[in-house]
Amino acid sequence: MLCIDTGNTRTKIEVYKSDQPIHAQQVDVSTKTDLAKIIEQFNIKEAIWSSTGADYPTIAEWLDQELDLFISLSHETPLPIQIAYHTPHTLGRDRIALAVAGNNYFPENNVLVIDAGTCITYDYIDAQQIYHGGAIAPGIQMRFKALNHFTARLPLVPFDRDYDKLIGQNTQESILSGVLVAVISEMEGLIYRYFAQNQELKVLLTGGDATFLHKNLLKAFTTLYGKNFESPLKNQIFAFPNLVIDGLHQILKYNAIKDQ
Question: Can you tell me whether residue 164 is helix, strand or coil?
Answer without folding.
Answer: coil
